[in-house]
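Exercise 3.2. Students should predict the tertiary structure of the chain below and write it as structure tokens, then compare their answer with the key that follows.

Predict this chain's 3D structure.
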Amino acid sequence: MGRFDYADAAKAFGAVASARPDALDAQVNLAIALLNQQKSEDLARSESVLRERVLAIDARHRRGRYVLALLLLNDGRTAEALPHFRDVADADPPDAFAAYFAARSLAADQPDQTLLWYRKAIALDPLLRSAYYGAFQAMQRLGRGDEGRDLLQRFEDLDRNPQAVVAEFKYLHMGPLAEAITIDRDRAAIASTMPAGSAFAAAAPLVAQPFPWRSGPSGGPVSPSITVVDVNGDGTLDVFAAGAGGGTTPNALLTGDADGSFQPQLRHPLASVAGVRTALWGDYDNNGLVDVFLGRSQGGSQLWRQVTSGVWRDVTRAAGAVAPEPAVDGAMFDADHDGDLDILLLSARGSIRLLSNNGDGTFRNIAAAAGLTNDDRGARGLAIADLDADRDADLIVIRQTPPHDLYLNDRLWQYHRAPGTDVLANAAIETVLAGDVDADGDTELYTDGPRGIERWVRDRQQVWQPAQLAAGDTGALGGPATVRQLALADIDGNGSLDLIVTRGSSWAVIDPSARQSGSTQFTAQGPATATWTLGLLDPARGPSVIGLPADGAPVVWGPGPGRHPFLALVLTGRDSRSDQLRSNLSGIGASAAVRAGSHWTALNTWRWQSGPGQSLQPVALGLGGAAQADFLAVTWSDGVFQTELSLAAGTVHRIEETQRQLSSCPVLFAFNGRTFGFVTDVLGVGGIGFLERPGVYSEPYPTEHVLLPVGSLVPKDGRYQLKLGEPMEEITYLDAASLSVYDLPPGWQMTLDERKSIAGPVPTGEPRFFARDLVPSRATTRSGEDVTRSIITADDVAAPTGTADPRFIGRTAESQVTLEFDRPLETGGTPPLLVIDGWIEYPYAQTIFAAWQANAPYRAPSIEARDRDGRWHMVLPEFGYPAGMPRQMSVPLPKLPRGASALRLSTTQEIYWDRLAVAYPESVPAVRHRRLPVSAARLDVTGFPHRTTLSQRRPHYDYDRRAPLLDTRHPRGWYTATGAIEPLVAATDDAVAIFGPGEEVHLEFVAPPPPPPGWTRRIVLEVRGWCKDMDLYTKDGETVEPLPGRASPQRDELHRRFNTRYEAGR
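Answer key:
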């Protein structure tokens, strides 16, 4: 059921139900699986199971009554459903989902009663988002719309809370009573008691081998720092203690072995770099090998690249990563969310350096241009967090003296100062850490300073306000602080984050969830330490603390017996099944929320410990004794949402960002006599807000003509039926649709003057008829490979593209296809057409930005022609390309050089040429043309057709295999209500039907009589509209508005009538 494979689930549950007719919960499991298949025969069987096998035996069976009520409500039998929902909602324990669906079952003319039930659902479960929206709608019907706006705002705010839920007719969204349960097993997910003993073992030496450890106090020229990373890529974590050594080996690089021991690497080049204050680890060039930026306290910081495994090179000057200022701390993270890691460096003199990764191995400092202020107040430290919940990385810089700096990321290399921060900015703070301890989706800040440890949250006016967790300089925490550090981690495996703090020579663990003085859970005993860090040396048992004394070898407080098992996550932007990459390979900047039973834990991978230094290691999560995490939700640094199910405790799980297609504009399905078959996508030319380069967005072309393949659309009950579906994370604004039917006499063909135009002639969408076309006699690639067989037939086997650029989706090294014909192409008549069947691997706005930054342009195809003397002439520079998934396009060829008998296409786009031919257009007086208006249109929520990616990245969708849920979100705003929508799509008037992920528009047209025998019918879908995705670099990508097109009184009235459904987020 968790994989939404309801057919197999029904078979399995059916076998259990037959073997155990007395197990009523097994019968309900079967009914749930049948209900979710949503086929009429399955719904009838589900109702029969519930009535005859469950309620006939136990008329008060709670789950049975609830699932039956859902079935009745979904079938429109609201009067029958309502008493079941009411009884379940009022039973002990009361159920919020039952109260919500009771409100849904009430008639529209009872808004007062509806509001009461929605309010009851909210009282029972304040995280049930849908109840707030339902209450808002009820308020509107009662004429109290202004009062209801707070409810709508709460509905929106809950989108960022991973614990919030939406109620709808989809599995896992209908409430716990409608979920399949385990039969005859203990259903308790989380143990109620902690294991006996301490969470930490006694301090022990980390390394037994001799090493020239520094001697003397820590206040020398370099204060030591510790970071943890897998330096050599052997799967075992290593420790880098900067400033811990003496003589010619100022840094201790301790490589870990599988037996838990550590070996000093005296001759490693990183061990000999003097003056290192902060080490920032990450794979900045995405080559699969970790690199490091070493911030030095006397200036002259260095960037070291791991060129090949174990081979390190100082590339500071070659990479443009020079930083002469004395470094205090920094971070390696994807500041501009373009898929590679940038470097932020803070100076003791007050300057900020933001080294933006150009994507070509070089960096440039953009701090001043981006609005990051330099001044003479030295910096102490920093935190990175999404302070305004808009999916990007904001900055907090702690200064030696207030005010501190809080910057919100505007993307495109711009920051502005965050509002509501005066109290925080002027507080006496020495270190800061960001987290989400209560897992509600809102960032908290934890600070330490003379006033003690404080927890900062925003009040109702969005102003940051503090609450003290521990008073300053308390003896319980070890006396006055010299270097203050903070970390957030679950140290006992109970699934809740703890706050690890330091004061003077001791460190302790306190409870960060308490609003007043935080209770101390553990105080370290052992040698005095100058600095410490967390290290996941034993992933199954959780984090250790590694401490570095001022003048001796490091010690470790390992996991103690008082812990539950942990699971560990290695997050990476590299999908091993794909050669594409959207997020940085190190996974830095990903945020995650984990559920075990009903308990949630939230975390991010920017910095879960205050500096100095930035480790790179797996993330440990306790599950409170549960055997597995039931659910993991990840938001990657590119803003993409992904979920995983059933992750076992005691294991390291590698979570890769799935490289699925996130946008392409709506997908077209046509009834082909048997089913609704996949055809292609449409409106690829109508994308709005698509970034070309900073400040420049591509111009959408809202009209597209799609020539349907022969036989792909046949009448059903006298009507042509098409579906436009949204299986991706985007919105469609559909203005109008119609069909043009062309019946061609024998021997004639047609194409359309249609394509995504770049610099070539603007397409008209008009038909072009021809009786003659010419395929190449030979076709070769730039390397001389013969690809003739691949391009003379439209058979979904295309010529190979250029070598893929692994940095940028949809970009390749320049490719060429040369077409040689057995005769000159000019005939003296009408200029010929180049007719192309093919498809393109589209980039996203984010990758376009990244490629622009790296000076790696996407060059659209150009056409050259070879004259009779063998010279090549440019005919059409960057004329355009097939605008999406498999389709046919054409482009008129202007006057060719005399005697030209060869054409050459070149591009850096990943375009798959399936068939290439030259056609000679002519007039066809006998052609019969009919234009068919929409006869019926409706909008439905139908789920997500199953996608497979075939060879050469050719997509295919199976409409008959639809999943109710996918890892997608709705941009915020008003969508078209489900049901009939003909007035919105019947005419070109800018009144649009708006639909999003998992939704479709079903269109019907009255089919004309069939053509005469021997004639060929070609059908063209003429569609007008726009689409927009949620890429971080798409303009206004997170909201439905602003609407495209022009406003008018008629449009406004249609929108008020039809666009009444509000959606936001998941």
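Discussion points: The mean pLDDT is 90. The chain has five domains: 6-178, 204-214+221-324, 591-656, 661-740+928-1065, 749-923.
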